[in-house]
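## retry 2 of 3
previous attempt timed out at serialization; input unchanged, resubmitting
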Amino acid sequence: MRYAAGIEYDGCGFFGWQRQAEGRTVQACVEKAISKVADHALNVVCAGRTDSGVHATGQVIHFNTGTNRPTNNWLRGTNANLPDDISVRWLSSMDEAFHARFSATQRHYRYIIYNHPCRPALLRNHVCWHHAELDAGIMADAGRYLVGEHDFTSFRAVACQAHSPVRTIHSLEVRRSGRFITIDVIANAFLHHMVRCIAGVLIKTGCGEQTPDWTSDVLQAKDRRVSGINASPAGLYLVKVRYPDHFAVPSGTRLPVFG
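## retry succeeded, writing output
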């Protein structure tokens, strides 16, 4: 049988999603918890591998098992065996054609900036802090150059293993609420460090260091060195993954809201 599940986690205590020889990872913790319920070792596949320090409220996984248990037993049993910084929000049996990664049609990331002269203490691992005043309107103007299908070589990590740098951004919105600025990016898929690099470029325009049309120059350069450093992983959340309707994947997710 194949099951899918929605996962929420606080990424600040993990070396990213993907299982590693050393270091605490989300995948290793989830596989250990589900394997205890299944009473056999199993592997889980996720919709999008997140980096060290990156959070998720809408990660989706799938796994296969020959163990037959009621859905509620899988859900409650897995959560009982997970650490406090990971939670399964929903779990459902799925058609065997469903694949958490390859069946996905859109991913939605939210990036949150705390724009204040003084750094935060309680939110230090959950927002990106920027001390200089940012203009969210200018950041939104800059982001419009990135919407559509483009070669995002300038916005991906040098070590990115994707075969093609071409991705399609369906929407990119920037909003301010008090001292918090939220960047919502929805695309068919993302490259390694792509959202953090986008956030870094938009921050440069928002503080007046660059003009909005510089974003287009960065895009056309196809050179990672042009865009500059990545924004902090602390402000990044994977909030939603969309699938074709016939899979009937539960749509409930919790968006991180500050402000």
